[in-house]
Amino acid sequence: MLSGKQSFRGETLTDTLAAVVRGEPDWGDLPANTPPHIRWLIRRCLNKDPKQRLRDIGDARFELERPHEPRSNGVSATSETSRGSRARLAIGLLIVGALAAGFLLSRLLSPRASSTPPVVRLIHTIPSEQVASGQQRNRVAISPDGSKLVYAANERLYVRSA
After folding, report:
1. Quick one: which of 6, 37, 94, 96 is 20 to 30 A from 58 by CA?
2. Contacts of 128 by beta carbon, 8 Å cutoff, 6+ apart
3. How far is the C-alpha of 16 from the C-alpha of 88, rounded, in Å?
4. What is the C-alpha to C-alpha distance for residues 113 and 8, in angstroms, rounded to an integer?
5. pLDDT digits (tens, 9 = 90+) for 54-106
6. Taking a C-beta distance cutoff of 8 angstroms, is the pair 93, 46 a contact?
7. For residues 40, 76, 79 and 64, what is the CA-based torsion angle, rounded to 10 degrees?
8. What is the pLDDT of residue 33?
9. Residue spans of beta strands (DSSP E) within the chain
């Protein structure tokens, strides 16, 4: 959101998820005036190692509200950020998280074109004057597209539309 670009790109959802697992965001895409403590927070949120990553948005909110002091990774933070801008950033992070979750859920739950044909059920009663033949073989077959039914009776084959 800060850079105005997608951090990870892919043609499909699977490609995007693979890019997240494989790579790191381009940290140079962040605006030059991004405060150091915000850079530090974003790195913690996107860290690949779960032990180093923040657990949830509550941890991020705590980090945003605490006084900005030098971090262990050598990045120092300034205390010039006002309470209002921190609140806006927290709200922005919440919105981005909600949008990302919504996007992923919509992609996962959206109906997809299925390669399996629809289930077709039919009941066909053989007329009383037709006697089933071919006791040792399959007596009924359905066409590959499911539109026709073929059965053997009276030593003949009969075709019916499904």
Report:
1. 6
2. none
3. 28
4. 26
5. 888 888 888 888 776 655 544 444 444 456 677 788 888 888 888 888 888 77
6. no
7. 20
8. 86
9. 140-142, 148-153, 156-161
pLDDT in tens, 97-138: 888 888 887 777 766 655 666 676 777 777 878 777 666 556
Cα dist from 85 to 9, 62, 70, 79, 162, whole Å: 29, 15, 20, 12, 67
The total number of residues shown for the chain amounts to: 162
Residue 146 has pLDDT above 60, yes or no: yes
Per the listing, tokens 């040792």 go with 136
In Å, how far from its chain's centre is CA 4? 21
d(CA 114, CA 70): 54
Token reading at 46 = 């996107």
Q: Angle at the Cα of 32 (from 26 to 37), degrees rounded to 5?
A: 85
SS3 helix, strand, coil % of the chain, rounded to 5? Answer: 35, 10, 55
